[in-house]
């Protein structure tokens, strides 16, 4: 029966895509309608299902009912203008199939095929289940992040966590943007495995994102080739880390580290030919068996090719592990495409502006950084393309978003004691290696941060940091901004500036340059406890960079003497990511490969979680040791007093005394009689029903290596479940 439910859900997705693609009553290409329809159906359908589940619980009926309501609602709106909608689809297909569109048609087909194959392969390796039941992650970043997503999804699907409470911090509302994981939970309810439930929508949205970048570039006048380049940059763009493989090849050939450094290379000109020859001789072998990650991802600072590498290959740093950004970015691209068409449409197209507002209003439930970035970008675009519809987008966004924003605004934002208060000011972001002072955000510190950012712009260290991390990206933005400003002047300077800006379509400049404002804001304000999380904003700036870079490369490629410059620009951005991708190929030695497997849950852990889920109440609270991949919260969907500290800290959790209380409870009272032991009083205080004691005290994330293993075993408590390493005690009657 599970396959039947999933088949019905797939059918509703297809019908919803067709209906939602008909909603924008503006001129859109057929591929844009398909992609926008898919994104709208996934995002809005998830939200409608969530509301229905709040009222009637999460079940097969509410999951399919939510999708059906979405399709009926969208279809009802479309039905009123069915003749115009059918004409839009018919005209779109006729235009796509016309002889003059052959090149675009073939290019889109090839891009769609390659993208589908790529993401199908990648996401099929995100999580897998071995023959013995072991759950493995295919990538280390997926192992690190998807444990949290599994935890949230399981809390809905298995733990019936509605209204949502934080499964990692009992008694607190779930403040993390949970809608993507809720949507995966709905697939679990329909019968999908947790691995498929997380991977399938991720792959679908990754495909939509890639193709929406391509179609956005076409809409803005840059062309299909520029769009493909922009999509590739967004997926694998990086900096100059690839230079590390030259040094490694040089050393591998037998030269000293000093000879292989840039300073040593130029200091001994007589040796230059032999150094180059030796490096090139060993380079192919080094590429095939790369000894380290040249983008610096998950690499100790001492082993990174360049100092202070903070920008990693997006595919492995964001698109695969961070599920929320897939949903947010897909929604943002759908909004940009619709509004770029509606703002210049001959008819008013107010319903298109309203639909964009619905998608933006859902972002506090999906990805709050998307809402911040789009508020900046769309505000600046609206100043250039005047239209009354912008007010409709703003009004609908506020109405849809305000309930969630109000709940987030009234919650904790970390604490000074834990060092995770936010938002803060950090001029220049992490160009000082994260060692700069971070002040709480106030009007005064905001001004100071702006001044500090201007000082950073005058610092060679700042420019060196960004060039090392992102290649030509920041200099390109600076040159284009200066050229746009200088183009208003008369004389030689203005003429030169206008020649430079002429390399870019006007519409592309109007859309891409506002993303540079996101870069500026993220260089001043840190919006989460962990300053590295500002990369979720820089991702949007990078979209603007990718569009500019794609357009410039295509323009220069038309002239043979500029192709060298175009290739050089592309190399500074794409070579490092290309090297990282090559580590996926089968000839890479297992020790050097990007892929796993990395064990997320052993077969023993899976069996333990199954027993716990069957023998404890869904809302039971567990005292756990804080491992990120704890099976009781990750698979059984139960709630922990305090889960993995690193996640909670980065979310700005105010721990109060809970951290120390958890340690005290885990350690027990080995030196006191039970009547004087405070542990049981604290268990009652936190409403703990069960205690999980795991003897793997050196595992990642364990909050206390002094857990009282013998003390807990000697308390005579009922055992609910056990495995080779874990014992779960029932403390409800203690």
From TrEMBL:
Keywords: Membrane, Transmembrane, Transmembrane helix. The chain crosses the membrane at residues 36-58, 106-124, 195-217, 224-247, 324-343, 355-383, 464-487, 508-527, 539-557, 564-585. The keyword Endoplasmic reticulum does not apply. This is Uncharacterized protein. It comes from Candidatus Amunia macphersoniae.
């Amino acid at each position: 029966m599970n396959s039947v439910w999933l088949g019905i859900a797939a059918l509703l997705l297809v019908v919803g895509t067709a209906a939602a693609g008909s909603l924008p009553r503006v001129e859109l290409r057929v591929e844009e309608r398909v992609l926008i329809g898919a994104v709208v159906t996934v995002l809005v359908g998830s939200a409608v299902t969530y509301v229905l589940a709040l009222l009637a619980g999460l079940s097969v009926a509410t999951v399919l009912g939510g999708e059906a309501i979405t399709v009926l609602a969208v279809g009802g709106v479309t039905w009123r203008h069915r003749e115009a909608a059918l004409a839009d689809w018919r005209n779109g297909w006729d235009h796509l199939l016309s002889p003059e569109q052959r090149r675009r048609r073939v290019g889109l087909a090839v891009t769609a095929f390659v993208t589908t194959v790529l993401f199908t392969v990648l996401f099929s390796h995100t999580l897998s289940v071995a023959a013995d039941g072991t759950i493995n992650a295919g990538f280390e970043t997926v192992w690190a992040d998807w444990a949290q997503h599994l935890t949230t999804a399981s809390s809905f699907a298995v733990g019936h966590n509605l209204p949502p409470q934080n499964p990692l911090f009992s008694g607190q509302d779930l403040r993390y943007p949970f809608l993507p994981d809720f949507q995966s939970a709905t697939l679990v309810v329909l019968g999908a495995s947790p691995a498929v439930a997380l991977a399938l929508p991720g792959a679908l949205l990754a495909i939509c994102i890639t193709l929406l970048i391509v179609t956005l570039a076409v809409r803005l006048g840059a062309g299909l080739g520029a769009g493909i380049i922009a999509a590739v940059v967004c997926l694998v763009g990086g900096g100059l880390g690839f230079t590390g493989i030259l040094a490694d090849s040089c050393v591998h050939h037998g030269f000293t580290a000093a000879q292989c450094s840039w300073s040593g290379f130029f200091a001994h000109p007589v040796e230059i030919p032999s150094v180059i020859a030796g490096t090139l001789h060993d380079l192919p072998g080094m590429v095939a068996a790369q000894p380290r990650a040249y983008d610096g991802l998950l690499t100790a600072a001492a082993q990174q090719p360049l100092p202070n590498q903070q920008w990693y290959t997006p595919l492995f740093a964001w698109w695969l592990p961070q599920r929320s950004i897939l949903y947010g970015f897909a929604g943002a691209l759908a909004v940009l495409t619709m509004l770029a068409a509606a703002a210049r449409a001959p008819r008013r197209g107010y319903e298109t502006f309203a639909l964009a507002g619905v998608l933006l209003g859902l972002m506090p439930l999906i990805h709050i950084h998307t809402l911040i970035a789009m508020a900046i970008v769309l505000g600046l675009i609206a100043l250039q393309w005047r239209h009354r519809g912008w007010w409709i987008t703003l009004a609908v966004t506020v109405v849809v978003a305000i309930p969630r924003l109000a709940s987030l605004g009234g919650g904790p934002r970390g604490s000074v004691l834990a060092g995770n208060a936010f938002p803060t000011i950090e001029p220049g972001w992490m160009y000082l290696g994260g060692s700069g002072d971070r002040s709480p955000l106030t009007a005064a510190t905001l001004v100071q941060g702006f001044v500090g950012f201007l000082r950073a712009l005058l610092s060679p260290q700042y420019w060196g940091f960004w060039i090392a991390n992102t290649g030509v990206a920041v200099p390109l933005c600076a040159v284009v901004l200066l050229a746009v400003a200088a183009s208003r002047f008369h004389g030689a300077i203005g003429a030169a500036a206008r020649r430079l800006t002429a390399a870019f379509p006007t519409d592309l400049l109007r859309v891409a340059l506002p993303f540079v404002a996101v870069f500026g804001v993220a260089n001043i304000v840190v919006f989460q406890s962990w300053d590295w999380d500002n990369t979720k904003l820089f991702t949007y700036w990078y979209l603007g960079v990718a569009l500019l870079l794609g357009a410039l490369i295509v323009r220069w490629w038309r002239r043979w003497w500029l192709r060298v410059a175009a290739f050089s620009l592309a190399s500074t951005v794409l070579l490092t990511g290309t090297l990282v991708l090559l580590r996926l190929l089968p000839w890479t030695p297992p020790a050097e490969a990007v892929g796993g497997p990395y064990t997320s849950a052993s077969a023993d852990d899976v069996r333990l979680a199954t027993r716990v889920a069957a023998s404890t109440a869904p809302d039971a609270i567990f005292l756990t040791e804080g491992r990120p991949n704890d099976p009781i919260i990750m698979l059984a969907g139960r709630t922990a007093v305090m889960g993995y500290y690193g996640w909670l800290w980065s979310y700005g959790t105010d721990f109060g005394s809970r951290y120390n209380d958890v340690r005290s409870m885990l350690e027990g009272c080995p030196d006191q009689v039970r009547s004087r032991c405070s542990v049981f009083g604290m268990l009652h205080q936190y409403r703990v029903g069960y205690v999980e004691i795991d003897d793997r005290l050196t595992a990642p994330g364990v909050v206390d290596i002094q857990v009282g293993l013998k003390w807990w075993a000697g308390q005579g408590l009922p055992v609910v479940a056990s495995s080779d390493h874990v014992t779960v005690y029932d403390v409800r009657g203690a």
